[in-house]
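Hey, I was hoping to borrow your eyes for a little while. No rush at all, and the record is pasted right below:
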Amino acid sequence: MLAVAGGLGAALVFAIVTLCNARSSRIIGPQALLGWIMMIGLVILAPFAIADGLPGGLDARAGMWMAVSGIGDVAGLLLAYSALRAGKVGIVAPLVSTQGAIAAVIAVLAGEPLADGAAPLLAAIAIGVFLAATARGREFREGKISDQTHRLRASGLALGAALAIGASLYAISQVSVGLPVVWALLPSRVLGVCVMTIPVALRGKLRMTRSTAPFVLIAGCGEVLGFALFGFGSRHGIAVTAVLSSLFAALAAIGGYLLFRERLSRVQLAGIGLVVAAVATLSGIQAA
């Protein structure tokens, strides 16, 4: 039950973060957005890490998983923000949401049991991803490049983000088993500040506008909260928490329709619906 609660809580938070990032990335750019997100996260986490001190379980194995979680998170978020800038939330979110299925597959390959009937559902997720990514659409209203080109680029970036974040989620679950959750989240924020925030600031491109500031602040806090909920839930079942957290795609797609008036083709809607339904069903049989 705790795995379910952690996964659903993470899904709600990630949906809000996705909608905030969709707006911010189109105004200040993905690199500046990631720079701010990493800095906000480090400001939140550093006091807790300092107060706790170095945990006793911090060994070479934990350090390896911390490195994987940090690199995967930073790379994945940069790809996800770039995808949100290039494409529609209704397409990007379902593709990025396969991060949960990827983390679940890694968990199963590492020895965690997978419920009967899960393999066909994973195949259904792959088919849904293909439909959402390749369906034809109308010309992109804001430029000369076709909507198809933007969609393919956004889809490629989103799938890359899903792979990187999926690996990061699994690594976070490994770290959070033996260490406080804050130490599972800290590496990506330290790495992000070093490789994104500081270099972008030195180039004078760490931009911020008054209209985007609230969205960036919410997203920065939400990224920490969402991954913390995931880390908490994964202690009680990595696969269940990972897959349930992927339901943020449905919430984000609805938000994209209501807030941004996004329109999707019937084939895309069918693909997105297939992904969401397969993820939800997989969550149910894994939690049973």
